[in-house]
Amino acid sequence: MEAQSSHELVMARKRRREGSNGETEEGERLGKIPRYTVGLKNPAPFADELEPADNKPYERVTMEEAKKGTPLNRPVRVYADGIFDVFHSGHARALMQAKRLFPNSHLIVGVCSDELTHKYKGFTVMNEDERYDAVRHCRYVDEVVRNAPWTLTPEFLAKHRIDFVAHDDYPYSSAGSDDVYKHIKEAGMFAPTQRTEGISTSDIITRIVRDYDVYVRRNLQRGYTAKELNVSFINEKKYHLQERVDKVKRKVRDVEEKSKEFVQKVEEKSIDLIQKWEEKSREFIGNFLQMFGPEGALKHMLKEGKGRMLQAISPRHSPDSSPTREERSPSPTFRLPFFSKTSPPPSPPHHSGARGYLISEDDDEDDDGDEDDNN
Q1: Mutual orientation of helices 212-221 and 201-210 as an angle, nearest 10°?
Q2: Residue 373: is its pLDDT beyond 50?
Q3: Greater confidence, 258 or 27?
Q4: Cβ(166)–Cβ(191) below 8 Å
Q5: What is the reported pLDDT for 73?
Q6: Among 58-67, 106-115, 340-349, which range has the highest average pLDDT?
Q7: Is 46 helix (H, G, I), strand (E, B) or coil?
Q8: Per-residue pLDDT for 15 more than 60?
Q9: Nearest one of 49, 124, 62, 138 to 93, comparing CA atoms
Q10: Cβ distance 84 to 91 under 8 Å?
């Protein structure tokens, strides 16, 4: 029931995503889905292990009926076959397209045996049991047919009640036929799918063959013996020697990378240190010039100190010219005690001399000067 409900949910989303022409947009993403497993929880069963179908006659559905959607109890039975060697994403995408051809489908996948594959196509990397198991664990597969036929017969189609056969539309020439699906196409039972470019079993094998030495050395390093790898004694020693040389090269490369990183770090640190030195040197030079430059603070300090020192040790200068007698302030006068207040004012002094005259400080200075002149 859970698987059916999940299938209905996915089909409903697919129908909502269909365009006006009824074709699903290939690159569009599905919306968010609830957190439970949409695909089957168990591997797909093998066809020979299932219970036989009822005895009702099997009637195929037409392409129109299949595209419209069939009832849940009557899914469209789509068959896809192949070798599926080295199962990869190209195989899974082809099966996904086959599963999504119709709204309600049941995908049956036929896997050819080693005998048929080696006869018509070539040697495989994986044996048939490994290929069966790989296919049945693909989430899009509902049923696996082991030992599938190389060419589809009407009896095989009727036995497995197949409505349509899904495969890419390229002519598949094999077993003496130009296209093994020619009669299927003529019967209107062919449903084409698209190949995934850039990946195939042949491409993967080509990579391994091209890089054979690399993969041999890889497996020898992981513990496989030369006998298991079908490698001679000489080639084994050669591969071991190459591995040692490569180790030395890797070590040298690592040392070079580390040395480059170290040199780069040293250069970055040296650049930072030089920048800091330059900034400090500019600051030091600026401070030095501010203190000891031509107009620096030291010069002003010396000038100021010199001026103060000269001012302290030098005497006060006398005025350049003495003021005249008229400009001098009058000296206070006084009278000798023997002059009375009623005596007349003294006359101007004469060389003949007079008994009574006024004496002032200026007269004393003049007398001193006269004496000096007489002397």
Answers
A1: 80
A2: no
A3: 258
A4: yes
A5: 87
A6: 106-115
A7: strand
A8: no
A9: 138
A10: yes
- Distances, alpha carbon 177 to alpha carbons 83, 151, 174, 194, in Å: 18, 10, 5, 22
Crossing angle between the packed helical segments 212-221 and 233-292, to the nearest 10 degrees: 90
> What CATH number belongs to 63-199?
3.40.50.620
Q: What is the pLDDT of residue 104?
A: 93
- 32-36, 259-263, 298-302, 360-364: least confident range: 360-364
Which runs of E-coded beta strand occur in 29-174?
76-82, 105-111, 143-146, 164-168
Strand 190-193 with 105-111, pairing: unpaired
With contact defined as beta carbons under 8 Å apart, do 167 and 80 qualify? yes
d(CA 48, CA 365): 161
Whether the pTM exceeds 0.85: the reply is: no
- Residue with the two structure tokens 């196409």: 185
- Determine the Cα–Cα distance for residues 299 and 294; give it in Å rounded to an integer: 7
Q: DSSP alpha helices (H): ranges in 123-194?
A: 128-136, 154-159, 182-186
At residue 333, does pLDDT exceed 60?
no
CA angle 135, 140, 141 (to 5 degrees): 50
Residues with Cβ < 8 Å from 72, sequence gap 6 or more?
4, 8, 104
Please name the residues in contact with 65: beta carbons below 8 A apart, sequence gap of 6 or more. none
Please state, in angstroms and rounded to a whole number, the distance separating the CA atoms of residues 68 and 104: 9
Domain residue extents for the chain: 63-199, 202-296
Give dist(CA 149, CA 178) in Å, integer. Answer: 17
Tokens of 41: 């929880």
110 bridge partner residues: 81, 145
Find all residues with CB under 8 Å of 1, minimum gap 6, and list them: none
Task: Fill in the DSSP letter of residue 217.
Answer: H
Quickly state the pLDDT bin for 299 (edges 50, 70, 90): confident
Instruction: Among 44-53, 140-149, 220-229, 329-338, name the one with the lowest average pLDDT.
Output: 329-338
